[in-house]
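We read letters as residues; the fold follows as tokens. A sample entry reads:
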Amino acid sequence: MHFSHEATPLNLRGKKVLLTTSHRNIGSGGSIQMLLLAESLVKAGAVVHAAFNYRDGARLADSNLDRMADLGVPIRFFRMNRWYSPVQIFRLRRLLVRERYDIIHTHKGGDLSLVLLASLGQRVPVIVNTRGVNFPLGANRVKYWSRRLDRVIVVSRDSKDVMVQCGVAEAKVRVVYGGVDTTRFRPRPERRGEVRASLGIADDAIVSMMVANLVRQKGHGDYLQAAALLKQSHPEAHHLFAGKGDQTQWREEAERLGVADRVHFLGFRKDVADLYAACDFSVVASFAGEGVSGVLRESMACRVPVITTDVGGNAELVRDGETGLVAPINDPPALAEAMRRMIEDRAFHDAATEAGYRDVIDRHGADARAKRVFAVYKEVMREKGLID
């Protein structure tokens, strides 16, 4: 990736940047955004270090951290939980004293707490946090009020509204939509038949996929009810559930609704990019907690059209009737109707596919996101008189 002067609002060559997260691996959400940012920073000439949450016995490859290590980024581990031991605070403080970072960019609440505790009395030119969910802040909101936290990057206007309602100064909050790894998530039409065959699905079947961990707020129950309604008109439709978690409840629900023979529980998959090749469209059925669902960007980048509920900032990414369809939350009949339209209205399906693909490439590629994040860094440095 080449950064022109316009695309790089800040000269990062030689700048030392510490990226942190309380994730234990690179697998979803903010951890992926952190990896994409690390790639952009390295290509822009910055010296990048990374810190993750410690997990006993974890190997880099097992945690997908080899992708970060392959960039030449040193990786360090700290125990990050709600009870911060003096040992962990001292370990991070010692690192900050030794390395003298120009920028610390945290990606979760837990690592932000640790950074603020460890940096007391230290001079850190820029401290930034990215918050990727839209849950209201609890008692932990105090750390977001800290004067030492220069900016909070949120992933949607909806998330910004939540932060401001929780008492975070609006002047501190910046909206930067997430990016997508277009080298990994790209159209693979040649894989369609092969992937379907591996799943035991016929070439002429309708296939929808939901990529989400099996937790309540992701809306698997609403999706299954929608699938049952859709079966009345489209019994040939298959539904893929890709995500980690206990499948028992949802398998029982699929059986009760009469769609167990059409729902495929795939568990956690590292080959989601390939699975998209088998799909006619993908669905986000969440009803809480989303900033902007990253799987929407991934699906669109693979030229797979999307249906989403109107949760968080998803309707800021998916323009209803243009780049996809938006249904109300907790409304299985509306979700089923959106799925039916995506199946039956082929002209709309194809138009949404192309419009969504162009939109995500133009607005949500890693380059576009990096440019906006770098602009936030520059804004803070100018504000503090660190650059002209």
The first helix runs from residue 29 to 43.
